[in-house]
Amino acid sequence: MQSVLVISGVILFFSCLLLSSRPFYRLYLKHVTRRVMKKHQMNVDELMTSFEEVIYLIPLPNNTPYIKNATIEQFYIVEDWSSWLYPELRALRVFLTNPDGPDQLIAYYSMKHFTLPSLAKLEFHHVISSEVYQKVATCRMLNPDLLAQLIQEVYTRIHKTRYGSS
Fold first, then answer.
1. Alpha-carbon distances of 57 from 26, 82, 146, 153, rounded to whole Å
2. Alpha carbon distance 60, 159 (integer Å)
3. 132 exposed, middle or buried (CB, 10 Å; 0-12, 13-18, 19+)?
4. Which domain of life is it from (predicted)?
5. pTM of the predicted model, to two decimals?
6. Dihedral, CA atoms, 26, 29, 35, 36, nearest 10 degrees?
7. Domain boundaries along the sequence of the chain
8. Going along 67-159, which residue ranges are E strands?
9. Residue 144: what are its φ and ψ, rounded to 5°?
10. Res 36 pLDDT > 80
11. If you average pLDDT over residues 109-113, what whole number do you get?
12. How many CB atoms are located within 10 Å of the residue 92 CB?
């Protein structure tokens, strides 16, 4: 009888551990987002956002040869999570593959500065809670289309000249 309780406890412990990990958290975020979007007749892919708050860690425009000559395929995004257990997305970091050394951090998009105006309006009018807003914003920030848009924005900003022409 005691061994059954121990085994049940171990299974319960690992189930809780697994269900609180990042992959399951992402599923949970998608579920919450779908429910909120359906309730308010919105589409998560159509939520507008701005990249004005992206923090660039290099001077813009940049004339460093390996940065200036980089192709868009050399840029990639790393998610910055607070922890593995009970994760919280802090930011997205955009890196550039460096052929001669370690990859370079180019830009940082903090979750604190990520806004969704249409949802912020709902939050302001107390239609949704700040917790729900954060969950939907996190889900939107992890959306593959938005990640591709972020890389495109960083690439464009690096290659834009000081006076507007490429």
1. 28, 21, 20, 14
2. 8
3. middle
4. Bacteria
5. 0.80
6. -150
7. 2-159
8. 75-81, 89-96, 104-110
9. -55, -35
10. yes
11. 91
12. 22
Beta bridge partners of 154: none
* Lowest pLDDT segment from 15-19, 48-52, 54-58, 119-123: 15-19
The residues facing 89 across adjacent strands are 81
Query: Which tokens sit at 21?
Result: 């990990």
Cα–Cα distance for residue pair 150/15, rounded to 1 Å? 35
Q: Please say if the pLDDT value at position 165 is more than 60.
A: no
SS (H, E, C) 25-68: HHHHHHHHHHHHHHHCCCCHHHCCCCCCCCEECCCCCCCCHHHH
Greatest C-alpha distance within the chain: 77
